[in-house]
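Below is a complete specimen:
___
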Amino acid sequence: MKILLAVDGSSTTKRMLATLAAHEEILRGDNQYTALTIVPPVTPRAAAFLSRATVESWYHEEAEKVLSPVRAFAEQNGWVLDARFALGRAGDAIVALADEGGFDMIVMGTHGHSALVNVVMGSTATQVLAGTKKPVLLIP
C-alpha cells in the first residue's frame, strides 16, 4: 500500500509516527511510505532581494529540519520511505500529492485545536478531509 505521511516536525508528528510503529496491525502488509512536509513560500517582495539559489537553498534547509528525523525514524523501523517537500498551503499540497501520486491512504496527526479555532483559522486535517476521496487516518 502507498501511504502518504503528512509531517510537520511537531510533537504531533512524532506521536503519529510512534503510533504507527507501535501498532503495525493498523496498516498491515508491505507498505511504501512517502513523508511530505510543507514549506511556506518566500513572499515575492522578499524573493526580489534574494537570488533564486538562496531561496531554493532555504526551502531545502527548512524541509530537511522536518524530514531528516522522519527518515531516521523510518530507517529504525525498517520502512521504505520517500521524503518530499512542497510549497504552499498544507491542505492543498497534501491533497494534490495524494491524488497525483496514486496514494492509497493519507495519514496525519491532529493538533487537537478547538472547534472555534478550526472555524476561525481552519485546520489542515479539515482541509484534507474536505479535499480528497482517499481514506484519511487521523491520529490525535
